[in-house]
Amino acid sequence: MKVRHILGISGGKDSAALAIYMKDKYPDLKIEYYNSDTGCELEETEILIDRLESYLGGITRLRAAAGSTEPTPFEHFLKACGNFLPSPQARWCTQKMKLQEMEKFVGDEPAISYVGIRGDEERDGYISTKPNIQAIFPFRRNIWSLDVINLFFNKENISKVVEIYRNVCPDIHDLDEAIRILETPLTKKFYYSKKLNALLDLDVKVFNKAVFEFLKTTSLPVGQLDKFPLVDNDDIIIKDDVFSILENSGVGVPGYYKPIEFEVDGQIGTYNRSRSGCYFCFFQQKIEWVWLYEQHRDLYMKAMEFEKDGYTWNQSESLAELCRPERIRQIKLEAIRKQQAQKKQGDGTLLSQIDDNDEILCMNCFI
Ligand code: SF4
């Protein structure tokens, strides 16, 4: 059966870098790149996606609510929701504008979805909600998702996995050690990640080969392939590498990351947008709202217009309150204070100011 290879371009730096990396490193993989267009992205994001499209040779644009008379998919669904704004607790926006479209795009065919979680992130990783989609993380030392690792270490599969290791492990000493690790029961002290890291420390490529052989005994998409070149991948791509990939390819870093200086009471700070996503995204920090107000006033005003019937983007204050001069001054001073504290810790660089809030795991919006 044909297995599709897909890669979602969110407009963020990590998925953009992953797309470039995959195209350059695995030119024979027929990867389908796609982007979910909300109609509410920043101009800088659109520029990045257009440049990527030229580099990659094509990106399928998915757009929800096709045929709607509303100007954007967001406005279509907002109307349908009775002006109820999305929030971290009621995140209908991602569901309706991105996830549903992605699931329609993939359909029921087996598909491998490449996800740009980096090697320097602590996230466990996304597990697909559809059984026919399997996530792979090429930037991490462990390219496999948690559900695959759980299956691989399941005690009912140990004898099968040991047998596979005997066939794929060329070094007899490594084999003895691998079998010892595999047969050591999971406990509170020797938990999944310890067991996983012990095997990866031994040999990443052998581990990957073993998992690939094991997957052939399951119905998961990777197991349906004759060969999977990523088993030989032991790269670990971290944040600095992502920026290098973007710069070296000529695609460049998304413009919204560029720090812009501001001054309050003789003190200098910088602001920028830390993530991709809709211009009104409720995950942005207060200083990013100020950035939007001062750098994209029209978009701030549009976001403000959506605040009606008591619904606001921020729980604590409305956008009309947030853009009062005294409040902007306060937010900027707070940002300067944080940046100075970061600088004291030797961490005031552009890269460190780009926030990667690990709690907000969403490959569809921010990766
Ligand atoms: S970027 Fe923010 S507002 Fe837009 S879909 Fe994602 S979570 Fe919702």
UniProtKB/TrEMBL annotation:
The lineage of its organism: Bacteria, Pseudomonadati, Bacteroidota, Bacteroidia, Bacteroidales. It comes from Barnesiella viscericola DSM 18177. InterPro entries: Rossmann-like_a/b/a_fold. It comes from the Bacteria. This is Phosphoadenosine phosphosulfate reductase.
